[in-house]
Amino acid sequence: ALTTELRTQLQLREVAGIPLQASTVDNWSQIQNFEAKPDDLLICTYPKSGTTWIQEIVDMIEQNGDVEKCQRAVIQHRHPFIEWARPPQPSANAKDCMVSYYHFQRMNQMLPDPGTWEEYFETFINGKVGWGSWYDHVKGWWEMKDSYQILFLFFEDIKRDPKQEIQKVMQFMGKSLHETVLDKIVQETSFEKMKENPMTNRSTVPKSILDQSISPFIRKGTVGDWKNHFTVVQSERFDEIYRQKMEGTSINFCMEL
Ligand code: A3P
């Protein structure tokens, strides 16, 4: 079990209205003052949108498809989260994202209990979840994408045509890899491989933090799992809220493949 001190440290508090883990809030100035080097690559994802997947893809490209090199450490150490100033660990589509996040909060003992699915629906649409509102995150980066060196990727696209999207990442990183290496990266970053890979599946994180018996970290990896969770009424209400919140943005998500 987690100590009371650790639990307090892990509660969500707010920075500029965005709920974040207390340990992040306490170190906010350090995080805000972070200065990137010109060739730094930042992966910016909303939680539960395929962060781990793109991390593994980027590292595989960086290491020219060398699987052994990508085994050198667990993924959260190879690509540390910038906002985890002090790692608290002691040792798509919007509907799918909400489903994934719900299951993640069920199993992640460091995040608030999500409550029932009905309760979580309200929490999520109101942005009262860790890292804030999904809508604000997506809109914000979408609006910035042409003003900075930003490669905007969709989980659904990587799912539909991994090779094409991995190629985009490769070009963005200024790398050029042989076709066979690309094919290998596609294979090594597949759902099945990453689910079994101890360097990506978080199996080394203690059960008191991530209880994978409740829900595995690499859970389903599909597009359209929301259909197994949303009632028709919820789906229609979600669509209406989505329309309002995303009004005026040109972003276009596909909801199924
Ligand atoms: P599900 O919970 O819907 O299965 P993050 O890494 O940002 O926490 O995102 C987690 C989601 O990405 C989970 O979705 C997980 O299964 C999925 N995922 C991780 N690796 C994947 C892969 N190689 N292919 C497809 N989906 C993957």
TrEMBL record:
A UniProt-annotated Pfam family: Sulfotransfer_1
Domain of life: Eukaryota
One of the protein's GO biological processes: sulfation
InterPro entries the UniProt entry points to: P-loop_NTPase, Sulfotransferase_dom
Keyword Transferase: yes
E.C. number: 2.8.2.-
Reactions performed catalytically: 4-ethylphenol + 3'-phosphoadenylyl sulfate = 4-ethylphenyl sulfate + adenosine 3',5'-bisphosphate + H(+)
Gene Ontology MF terms: aryl sulfotransferase activity
PANTHER family tied to this protein: SULFOTRANSFERASE SULT
The name this protein goes by in its record: Sulfotransferase
Species in which this protein is naturally found: Panthera leo
